[in-house]
Amino acid sequence: MNDFAVLNTGRKMPLLGLGTWKSEPGKVKQAVIWALQSGYRHIDCAAIYGNEVEIGEALQETLGPDKALRREDVFITSKLWNTRHHPEDVEPSLLKTLKDLKLEYLDLYLIHWPYAFQRGDNAFPRKEDGTLLYDDIDYKLTWAAMEKLVGKGLVRAIGLSNFNSRQIDDILSVASIKPTVLQVEGHPYLAQVELLAHCRDRGLVMTAYSPLGSPDRAWKHPNEPVLLNESMIAALAEKYKKSPAQIILRWQTQRGVVTIPKSVTESRIKENIQVFDFTLDTEEMKSITALNKGWRYIVPMIEVEGERVPRDAGHPHYPFNDPY
C-alpha cells in the first residue's frame, strides 16, 4: 500500500496530512512540529484559519538546508479565501500566505469555496442586518488567475475545495491547467462515492476534510449522529487492535482518498498516521462505505426566524444544492 496519491502533474501527495482548521494560535506551531517529527510529510493550511504565521514559524524551525527536513520533503497546501476571487486579488493573496508560511512556493493552492464574498479586507463582510455580502464573480475567472501562479513557479499545483461535480466540469471546460485535487468533507456518513468516481474519471485526487466527523465544531446539532461512536467501526477497531479513528482513516486511504485529520494533541497526531500497517478486507471496506447517510457536518448555518438554515444556500454558486 502506497502512502501517497499521484497527482495529474506526476507529483506525489502524501495520503495523510495534518489538518489545521480550528487549531488555535498558541497550539498549532507545536502541533506542526510534532506532526513532522512523527513522520507527517503533508500539512493542510488556509488563510482563513488565521494561523499561517504560527505554522510558518514551525516550518522555519524544521525545514531547510541545515534542518531535519528539506522543503521538498513536505507537501504544503493553502487556500484562497472567498473575498479574494477577483483575478487581481489572487496573486497578492498567495504572496501573503507564502510570507506568513515563510515559503517560496506551495505544493498546492485551492479555491476554498466556489462562491465569493464582497471584496475587501473584512473576511466576512456583512450588511446591517448581519447577513453576508456576496459577490457573483465567476469562479472560472478566478481559475485563470490561479493558472498564472503555476506559470510563475509560486505554486506547483492548483485545485478546488467544496466544488460540486457540475462546477468541476465547468472549470475543466476552460482550464489550460487542470485542477489536481478536490478537497471536500468526507467520512463514512458522507462517503462521497459518486463524487469520488467523478474525480477519478477526470484525473483529480480527492482530499477528505473532517474525516472523523469534526467532533470539535462550534455549531453541533444536539441530536446529530456521532461517527466515532458507530458500533460497527468499534468492532473493527477491536479486531485490528486500532482506534475507531484509525479504522476510518484506513478506509479512506485504502480508497486512495487523502485525509487531513486535525489535532493539536501529540498522542492523537501520532496515532492518526499509524494506518499503513494493516489492511481492511473488501467486505469491511464495503460495510464502512454502507454507513453513508449523506450527512454533512460542515455547512455554515444561521438562524432565520428561529429556524437553522444554510447560510449561503441562496448564492448562485452554492455547491450543495446539487446531489453531488
Structure description:
The protein is of the alpha/beta class and 324 residues long. The protein is 31% helix and 15% strand. It has ten helices and 14 strands.
Quick take:
With 324 residues, the chain is an alpha/beta fold. It is built from ten helices and 14 strands.
What integer is the average pLDDT? 94
Pattern of helices and strands:
EEEHEHEHEEEHEHEHEHHEHHEE
- Uncertain spans: none
Query: How many DSSP H or I helices?
Result: 10
**Biggest beta sheet attributes:** 8 strands, parallel
What's the Cα radius of gyration? Answer: 19 Å
Q: List how many beta strands DSSP finds.
A: 14
* N- and C-termini, Cα separation: 28 Å
Look at the helices and sheets and give the structural class: alpha/beta
Which range does the strand content fall in? 15-25%
Strand numbers in spatial order across the main sheet: 3-4-5-6-9-10-11-12
**Basic shape:** globular
Helical coverage, percent range = 25-40%
List the SSEs and their pairings:
Elements: E1 4-6, E2 12-14, E3 18-19, H1 28-37, E4 42-44, H2 52-62, E5 75-80, H3 87-101, E6 108-111, E7 116-117, E8 134-135, H4 139-151, E9 158-161, H5 165-172, E10 181-185, H6 193-201, E11 205-209, H7 231-240, H8 244-254, E12 258-259, H9 266-272, H10 282-289, E13 301-304, E14 307-310
Parallel strand pairs: 3-4, 4-5, 5-6, 6-9, 9-10, 10-11, 11-12
Antiparallel strand pairs: 1-2, 7-8, 13-14
Helix pairs in contact: 1-2, 2-3, 3-4, 7-8
